[in-house]
Every structure is written in structure tokens, then in C-alpha cells.
Input
Amino acid sequence: MALPSIGMTRLVGLLGAPDADAPAYRWLADNLRLLIADGRLPSGQALPSERRLSQALGLSRTTVTRAYSLLVDDGFLSARQGSGHVATLPLGRGRVGVGGALLPGYETSDELLDLTCAATRAPAGTAEAYAKAVQQLPSYLAGTGYATAGLPQLQALIAERYAQRGLPTDPDQILVVGGALSGVSLAVRALTRPGDPVLVESPSYPNSVEAARRSGARLSPVTVEPDGWDLDAATSTISAVRPVAAQLILDFHNPTGALMADGERERLAAALRRAGTVAIVDETMLEVELDEVVRPLPFAAHLSSTILVGSSSKSHWGGLRVGWLRVPRPLMARLLQARIADDLGAPILEQLALAELLRSRPGLHPETRTALQTSRQAMIEALPRAIPGARWTVPAGGLSLWVELPAPRSRQLAAAARDVGLLVSPGPQFAVHHGLESFVRLPYKDPPAVVTDAMRRLGSAWRNVMDSPGRPATAPLRPVVA
Output
């Protein structure tokens, strides 16, 4: 079967003019590597023959041969009989892109499938954004390098995005931080003292809950069902507890994928307003919209005291490590003071790179959306065979399914899955105190073939659990990274 190939005219246009200051083979190898890493020359696509490319570029065939050889050695090209050279990604050297997060002290291998991390690889354009950021960096080197609130151009781009969503925002309301988790932690520390009551969801993203717990807060959970929030219980809890702050994920909730509608937001906002509670709303998953939905207004449009937390980790790439807070003006001084005691600003290079990405495409890359839709469908089709009787609600966005098992065996399932080379996160890891033993979170961020293989292994593990119901869950659980 013939492999897809890139047109010569397009490839020559993407390569641009040769760099007169670099050897021709090095220029060609570096630019092809950038195109492959950036996704503009997708993995699996055939490159022109050495002869054709040398003629098109006006270079010697020896130059092209040397450049191709370098890329083969680096893992960005593979030589295939009958197909010439094919673009590849050197994923086997570090499975951050497909296999999950690399954690010190935890085993990883090419054979191990990691479903504990709900995050995608970098979209096309990321490497190019970094290249442009590096070009801009010298103009910042004469300064101190500290930008406590963030680079002004990045603040302006983020503020503009809020305005587009129906929430007028000034750039000086934006506080750039090192990721959404850092932002949530900063907000909790700035607003609370040890012993203060803080409302949290259950299930919820475990690291955010742990951040509140480490601050000394007294956690009061409210339930999020697979199909959404129990607002009756939430309003009752808010009235009784009168929490100082409320940590919420209202946009494609992690892990359930639920999206709170405007009417529900208004009701929840009214309860928090009566209690004098400041909401800290994590919008990390906001841009991961896979099905067309009616986009609700940001929660701050319903409750003006809300701190909104955003991040580039799901919309663009986790490796950027750039997040932000939209802060009500009366709270900005407290947040800035807490920020200075923590760190003095996010890295300049990453802020410049994110600014480039936001200018070209503020939301999820269309190719990423299509890939996630395809992988989600592959999981939905394979799950009934893997775990007969399992139930789930298909989310309109987000990166995972929140699956209810036919029996409360999720920790046993995680242990059995580890035996067949699959890492999964059982429900209790997402519980505030205890419970959720009947649930498991299954991210669909990998290619369909990997998702199908993961579901096959999950099915094998589930059968082992049901054949040995008394089996203890002895394997240590891998931390939930994202």
C-alpha cells in the first residue's frame, strides 16, 4: 500500500530559503526535524526521494543524503524498503507524548500503556512558536527576567479571550502562573487560613483537592454525578457550612466530563453570594470541546467575586507550563502578595511561545479535536466488550470517560491491569474522603489503535478480577498527573 506523501511544492514552501550561515545539510536536517516535530509533516508521511528533493532545492544529492541520514539517526525518519524515507517521531525514547507522564521512581517502558494522565501531545505549530519565541528572547535579556503578573502582550491576549466569551476583562486582571494547579494553589493560599471551610467537588481532580488539603483547609465535599451536579445538596451544604472558598470545575469536569449550564450556574452563584464565598473555578478543560454545545458564560459573569483559572495544558501542550488567573480587582493585591512569597513569575520563553500560539489559534487545534473524537469513539466501541455491563455518559468535551463498573472493584481492577501492562486510575483516587469504588477514569487521548489495545488489556484485567473476587488490591497506585 502506498504511503501518503507531501507535495513537493508544499514541502519546498515550508522549508523556505536556505540559511547562508549554516551548512546546507544541517539547514535541511534542522528544518525537516522542525516540520516533523511540529506536526506539519505528519508522522507516517513519505518524503520525496533524495534525487527529487535535491533537484527541487538546487542542492547536491550528497547534501540531501547526509541530511536524511542525520534524521534517521535522530529517529525523525525511517528508511523503508520501497517507500524511501518516512517521517516518524522518536516516541520510544520518552513516552511523554503517547504513553503518559514520566515519573521518577515509577516504571515506564514502550510496552506499558499509561491511562493515568489525561493530556495530549503538542499540536502542529508548537515548535514553530518556540522558534519565534527564541528569536524574541534577546530583547528581554537586558532586563531582570521577572514578570510577576506576566508579559503584557500575553495578559492582553488572555483578556481578549475572556471578552470574546462575554466577560469584559482588562489585561491587568490577568495573573500569569506556572500552570493551572499552581493557580489553584495560589488562590487557596491567598484566600484561606488553616481551619477555614472550603467547598470541593467529589469526584474531582485529586491534585487540586490535595492543594486545598495542604493549605490546612477543612474540606466540605459536594457530589458530582456522572450527569452533573447535585445542586440541591450543594446549596444546602453552602448554606450550612458557609465556606470561605469553593473549588469548582464547571467546564467539562475532571473526571466526569459534565458541563454546567447557565441556569445551574446562576443558582449556584446565588448560593455562594449569600454565603460570601469566593469561587475558584478551574477552566483547564474549557477548550477541549469535542461536540457542539451551547457555551455557558464564564462563572464570573454570574458571580463577580470569582477567580477563574485557565491553562494552556489541554488547549495546547502541558509542557508549556503556563496558566493564568482572572482576578477580581478587589482581590488582586492579595493574590500578588501571595504570588511573590511563592515565586516571582512564569518563565519568559514559555510566555512568548504561548503568546505566539494564542495569536495563531486560541483554542484546540482542529487536528487535535478530530483525533480525540476518533479515539473517544474507539473507546466507546471497545468498552462493552472489555467490561460488559459498564455504564458511562459520553461527554461533549474533556479527555476521558468516567466509567461505572458492574461491581465495586476499581482498585482490584487497577492492580490486575498493572499485571497486563496497563495503568489506570481507580475511582477512590478522585474521591475527597472515600468511596467511588465502582468508578474508573479512562482517558482517550491516545491514537485509536492504542486505545483499542488498552481496552483489550482492560478486558483481560476485568475478567481476572471477576474470576478472583477476593484478590487484594496490593499494587501501588500511580499518581494522577493530569
Summary: The mean pLDDT is 91. Residues 244 and 276 are 7 Å apart (CA to CA). The first strand starts at residue 77 and ends at 80. The chain has three domains: 8-89, 113-122+366-467, 128-360.
